Model the fold of this input.
Amino acid sequence: MNKGRLVGLVFLAIFLLAATKFTSTYQQESLSSMVVPPATETVAATETIEADACGTIKRITAAGAVTTNTTNTFTTPAANNQGCFMLVCNVGSNAITLDNNANFKSAGAADVIVGADDCLSVVSTGASGVWYQVSALLAN
Done:
């Protein structure tokens, strides 16, 4: 076997090993970044909605029509929820009113009534920050 052909085979082998490593790493990282949504949270009057669904859907429901806490609609903004993005969906049949307050800034600067099967997106700015409504209410 000539020297040039051997070098070519070595480069081909290295390329194939690198491609296999890249594919395995990419697949592993893709699978590990999937976020499993938490169980549906039942919201009672004056309660705070937990920020436990960062990067996924936050399913909420209520036993009757309710309004959230008037100080913290969602878990108090903190360093550990900075950049937390949640798609909040009412999976129940009763309206849940998200109170517009110092820690939750809604798109219209007013309370947001989330009806049955309605969704909206929110994001936290983290410590000493606020939660912002970053999408229109998707009324279904």
Residues 16-28 have pLDDT under 50 and may be disordered. Residues 1-34 form one domain.
